[in-house]
Structure formats: structure tokens, C-alpha cells
Amino acid sequence: MGKKSLFFAFVLVIALLSGCGKRKPVLHLYSWADYFSPEAIEMFEKEFNCRVQYDTFDSNEALLAKLQAGASGYDVLVPSHYIIPPLVRDNTLLELDKAKLDNFKNLDPAVVQMLPDPECTYAIPYMLSYTGIGYDANKVKDFEPTWEMFAKSEYKGRMTVLDDYREVIGAALYMLNLDPNTTDEADLEKAKAKVLTWTRNVAKFENEQYKNGLASGEFQLVMGYSGDLMQVIDETDNLKFAIPKEGCMLSTDMLCIPRTAPNPELAHAFINFLHRPDIAVINTEYTFYLCPNKASYEGLSEEIRSNEAVFIDPEILARSRIMKDLGDNISKYTKIWEEIKAAH
Ligand code: SPD
Predict the structure, then answer these.
(1) Which of 132, 176, 198, 203 would staple 243 via disulfide (CB 3.0–4.6 Å)?
(2) pLDDT tens digits for range 37-63
(3) pLDDT one-digit tens code per residue, 196-228
(4) What are residue 59's phi and psi, to 5 degrees?
(5) Which residue among 81, 168, 210, 289 is best mutated to probe the pocket of ligand 1, counting the most ligand atoms within 8 A of its Cβ?
(6) Rounded to an integer, what distance in angstroms lies between the CA atom of residue 231 and that of residue 214?
(7) Minimal CA–CA distance to 44: which of 246, 284, 266?
(8) Domains, in order of start, for the chain
(9) What is the model's pTM?
């Protein structure tokens, strides 16, 4: 080997030993689909010299089942806020280190105050999500913003409802003017009867494909999450979104770190990054969900600021309720949900 080659071999060995050859750290993110702008993810990867592995679930129940089956290896989870108390009870979550989350100060206090734990000990809000109805205005000429649209048999087989029992039973409770977080069994029976008048007309219980089904014309009226529907509606003139006048369930999907996270340091960095105002703007504009980051609101486009799927009408907001953790009473909901599905 000549002197030159020897020199290059030496430099290569030093570079490998000093870490240049090391694999990039990976942040394992487990969340709902279509919830992060690819641009924001790329920015994080560049700034933190890492890679983000984004795996998805389509319901809180799927997330819980995966965790209960012993899945570990995730750094950041994004469950809905009412799932945080059971995860804390099961000792699944790491307490957040606020010293690593200086963007926590940017959160909208109005949203934080609605949470079961406004201190955000184990989780901080990522996105506000509402439930509403997406429909094809060319096909559904008699549309009215009410959950009772699902009772219309003329759309039988062309409608879907969410596979989310809190949302569907909650909608029926709104319709009946009952508490959408009730644990009263007689009220839940009334809600079940109402849901059955809807589900006899629906093609399926669906949490993800409904948006493409609406866009492709397979479905004409669907119950769905606000941002998911807006992502397809924004591209097509005849598709519309409405939040029923009776009110809707409000929920906040939360950023949290499981105790088993391989890289809690990077997880904190990611959560903090998502609450940088410029990143919150990018994600809100992309997802049509509102990142409750007050410092970002002034950076949002007029299109988003005036969009009622993002900043919900104050009158409907006043009628809407945040979902509560129901503790063991949740079994009353799962029982009637099984009966509703069995009847389908
Ligand atoms: N694609 C993102 C979907 C977010 C759904 N939020 C779920 C709220 C459940 N109550």
C-alpha cells in the first residue's frame, strides 16, 4: 500500500471509530395516519440527524390492544386525551420532563384547561379533533347538519359511521339531548336504540377508508374526523363537511412517551419540535386539524382561520363536550357497542 492509500485508510478508520459511520438514531412514532406533514418530519430528521419511523393505528382500541399485547419499541404515542388516564393507571407512560419542553409555553391555555390533567404531567396536546359529517352535495340534496341524516333510508348502503363507540354513541346521546359522557344505563339503552336506526342503513363501521370512499363516490355521506374529511374535501367542489347542530364530541390527541421508549431524549425533542410555532403552522395547514399552539395562530393562512372544521363555530362549540375518561364504566359502552355491531 502506497503512502497516500495508507493515509486514506487511516482517515476512514478514524471516521468510523468517531461515529461518522454510526447509523442515525430512529424515532419510533405510533400515531393516527395522515397526522404529520411530511415537510415537518423531514425538517425534524435534518435538524436532529435522525430518521422518523411512522407507524399508524386507526383507533384508540387498536393502540391499547397493541400495547397490552406487549408492544414496546415506540418512542412517541398519540392517543386521545381520555385514554391517558387508563395508560397512567397501567403505569405505561413516562412522566414528561418539562425542562426539555420549553415550547410547552406556546400551548393554548383554553385547550389545556379542558384536559383531565391541565398540568400535562404525562402527555401534552397535539391536535384538536372534532367529529362531523362529510357528504357529496350532488347526491345528498336534502342535507341538513344533523346526526339524524343517518336515519335516511334513501342513502342505505352509501353511508358509513366511525368504528369508534365513544363517537357514535356520543352522537346518539347528543341527538337525544342527553349527556354525551353519561354512564346511566337507561340513557345508554336509549342511545343504543337510536344508533340502531342509523346503523341499519350504513354500509360499514370505518375509520380510515371512508375518506377515499367519499372522494371516489363509493359513499355519499360519512361520519368522520374533521381533518381527515377536510383533506379530501379540500380537493373536490361537490364534497362538503358539517358539524351537526346538536354538537359533537371534542377530543385532543396527545403526545406522550411510553416508559419502554428506546430514545426518550429524542422523543422529548420531537414533542418540543412539534410545538415550535412554525412547525405547528405547517402541521395545521397540512392536516386541517388545529394544533392548539396559541403562538402559531397568527401564522395560519386566512383559509384555515376561516375554516369551521378547524376553528369550530362558537355556538356549536358551546353545545359540544369534551370526552371524559369513564373508568370502569366504559364496559357499559363496550357492551352496547358489541350488541350494535352484532345486529349489523
Ligand atoms: N388522521 C387523524 C385522525 C385523528 C382522530 N382523532 C381521534 C379522536 C377520537 N375520539
Answers:
(1) 132
(2) 999 999 999 999 999 999 999 999 999
(3) 999 999 999 999 999 999 999 999 999 999 999
(4) -160, 160
(5) 289
(6) 11
(7) 266
(8) 25-128+251-305 (3.40.190.10), 129-250+312-342 (3.40.190.10)
(9) 0.90
Q: Is residue 62 within 6 Å of ligand 1 at its C-beta? A: no
Report how far ligand 1's centroid is from the alpha carbon of 225 (Å). 6
Strand partners, 133: 223, 242
Residue listed under C-alpha cell 392517543: 79
Burial class (CB in 10 A: 0-12, 13-18, 19+), 183: middle
What digits encode the pLDDT tens for the residues 123-157? 999 999 899 999 999 999 999 999 999 999 999 99
What is the rounded CA–CA span in Å between residue 338 and residue 71? 25
Q: State how far the Cα of 227 lies from the Cα of 129, in Å rounded to an integer.
A: 7
Beta bridge partners of 193: none
Does the beta carbon of 163 lie inside 6 Å of ligand 1?
no
Query: Which tens digit of pLDDT belongs to each residue from 59-85?
Result: 999 999 999 998 889 999 999 999 999
Q: Which atom of ligand 1 is nearest to the CA of 253?
A: 6
Per-residue b/e over 96-125, b at no fewer than 16 CB within 10 Å? beeeebebbebbbeebbebbeeeebebbbb
Confidence of residue 234 (pLDDT cuts 50, 70, 90): confident
